[in-house]
Specification:
The protein is α/β, with parallel strands linked by helices and 383 residues long. Helices cover 44% and strands 15% of the residues.
Length: 383
């Protein structure tokens, strides 16, 4: 039995992970979960999986909730969460906390040499210069859970190194606005932006898909995870979301990973760590497939150029780029700015800073804080 900690247990990735775990209970034991405030779902998880620890990040929770008398140990202190993650009995940590908020726990897992399943791309984007060398030092294994990066991971299985790679292609669904011009984006509503055509996700990543910022973040993440320059990573729109990524080798061969759009597929692959776990899935009907590819929609070039600049310079730029986007998305969700303003907030915030070297994890948190302050100034200037 492999002991697992699931961070972000009540989110969309958490839910998909639980579906995989319940189909493989003879292999995995869920020892602990972490969440923000959804106590009702947490109680359902406790009743089914009986984890020993439940970490709740929201300090203003209702302590009369039945979860407090469920028999598991409730922890709310970050130091206690660190002890849970770094417990020698824990083998796998699944980092599925949304956004930059997941960085600290990802760092603790890698620091302790845990096999870390990364669904939290923002950790790598913001702190790749810290986390990747740390993993090499502690011999922690980082396995990507994002469908695109897990697809690349699968396409690379059996390869000795990345020197034989010609290019990697990351696909994008294009979101709900792939056919719209930048001018037309000025009129889209929050409700429109939250209607993703192929994936069911949380609000933040759904907005990132609509702006295509998620592909920018994935481009940066791929550079770190697979140690490739940005010049060898391409992005194309693939509306059907069937091919998740492709790797072309120097001999002209291209290997692709295909599946119906379900996060349970990459999660099962990551948890299997080389073994194929049995899960329920909808098989592809190849006779009915009509796969198409398109260039990235016009007008989005600026955000991709910023992402490629992050890949080239690294350092503090990833934390700044991510923080600017997170604050802009939240402002849009809170009706403080329009959809099209997200691009302006990110660009103006990003251009305010120059690249600095990251030495410690504390540096990452500092640049994140600075970028959010600057993004807030930009947001206020738009109102």
């Amino acid at each position: 039995m492999k002991n697992v900690v699931l961070l972000g247990a009540t989110g969309s990735i958490g839910s998909s992970t639980l579906n995989v775990l319940r189909q493989n209970k003879e292999i995995f034991t869920l020892k602990a979960i972490a969440l923000h405030q959804n106590l009702d779902i947490a109680l359902e998880i406790v009743n089914e999986f009986s984890p020993e620890h439940v970490f709740i990040s929201n300090k203003n929770i209702n302590t009369d909730h039945p979860i407090f008398s469920s028999g598991c140990k409730i922890v709310t202190c970050l130091e206690d969460l660190k002890l849970v993650i770094q417990n020698p009995a824990i083998e796998i940590v699944i980092s599925a906390i949304s956004g930059f908020a997941g960085l600290q726990s990802s760092y603790w897992a890698i620091e302790a040499g845990k096999t870390t399943l990364i669904a939290n791309k923002e950790s790598i984007v913001s702190a790749g210069d810290i986390l990747i060398p740390l993993a090499a030092q502690t011999k922690a294994k980082i396995i990507p859970v994002d469908s695109e990066h897990n697809a690349i991971y699968q396409c690379l299985l059996g390869e000795k190194d990345t020197s034989a790679i010609s290019t990697i292609l990351i696909t994008a669904s294009g979101g709900p606005f792939r056919k719209l011009s930048m001018q037309e984006l000025e009129k889209v509503s929050l409700e429109d932006a939250l209607q993703h055509p192929t994936w069911q996700m949380g609000s933040k990543i759904t907005i990132d898909s609509a702006t295509l910022m998620n592909k920018c973040l994935e481009l940066i993440e791929a550079c770190y995870l697979f140690n490739l320059p940005e010049s060898r990573i391409e992005v194309a729109t693939h509306p059907q979301s069937i091919i998740h990524s492709m790797v072309t080798y120097q001999d002209g061969s291209t290997i692709a990973q295909l599946s119906n759009p379900s996060m349970e597929v990459p999660i099962a692959n990551a948890l299997g760590m080389g073994d194929r776990l049995p899960i329920k899935f909808t098989a592809l009907d190849f006779s009915a497939l009509n796969l198409t590819f398109e260039p990235i929609p016009a007008g989005r070039e600026t955000i991709f150029e910023m992402a490629r600049e992050v890949c080239r310079q690294k350092g503090s730029l990833g934390a700044i780029f991510n923080a600017a986007n997170e604050r802009a998305v939240q402002a849009f969700l809170d009706n403080e700015i329009t959809f099209i303003n997200i691009y302006e907030v990110v660009e103006r915030t990003f251009n305010h800073f120059s690249c600095s070297k990251l030495t410690t994890i504390e540096d990452v948190f500092d640049y994140d804080r600075q970028a959010r302050i600057q993004a807030e100034k930009v947001i206020k200037s738009l109102n």
